[in-house]
Amino acid sequence: MIARIAIVVVLVGSVLAGAGMYYLQVFHWYERVEPRDILLTARGGEEVPLPVSNIEAIDAESSPLRFRACFDTTAEPRALTDSFTLYEGAEPLTAPFWFDCYDASAIAADLSEGRAQAFLGIKNVGYGVDRIVAVTEGGRGYVWHQLNDCGELAYDGTQVGEDCPPREDFE
Fold it and tell me: In the chain, where does DSSP find H-type helix?
C-alpha cells in the first residue's frame, strides 16, 4: 500500500512539475514590449530606422534569443537590398503559440521561396546574437534574434577567435 501511495505522489509531482515548466517556458517569462524603432544596418555600417506601423513585439529577459516582432511596412524588399546588409542563413526561431502574428515556418518558407528577404537589423544586439529583420513582398515584416558565428562558438563551448568582440563589452 505504501508503494502505491509513493508511486501516486511521484506521478502527481511529475505532472505538476511538467505543467509548471511548460507554463514558465510558454507564458511566464514572455512579456509584450514596445520597440522604439525597427533598424536595418546599411551597407556602410550605420543603423537606419525602417518606416513601420502596427508593431507587435514580445521579449523575455531569460534569454537573448526570445525577442520576436511583427510589423507592417511600405518598404519593398527588392529596393532595400540595394542599401542594406543582407543576412545569409537566416532561420526564424519559433514563438509561443499565443503570439499569433509570428509563424516561423511560414516566414522560413517565404525566405526560401524568395517572397521575403532577410536583413541584418543590429549586429551583436547581445553577445553573439544578431537581430534579423525579414521583409515580405506584401509589406509584412518580422524580427527575431539569432546566434551569429561568435555566438555559435561561445555557446557550444568552443574557443572563440580574435574576430569576436570581447565578452566583457556585453556584461
Answer: 2-23, 77-80, 104-112, 149-155
Intervals of the chain under pLDDT 50: none
Any alpha helices (H) in 46-102, and if so which ranges?
77-80
Q: For the segment 73-102, what is each residue's pLDDT rounded down to a tens digit?
A: 998 888 899 999 999 999 999 988 889 999
The SS3 call for residue 106 is helix
For 23, counting Cβ atoms within 10 Å of its Cβ (0-12 exposed, 13-18 middle, 19+ buried), the class is: exposed
- In the chain, % helix, strand, coil (3-state, to 5) comes to 30, 30, 40
Query: Residue 18: phi, psi to the nearest 5?
Result: -65, -45
The C-alpha cell at 84 is: 542594406
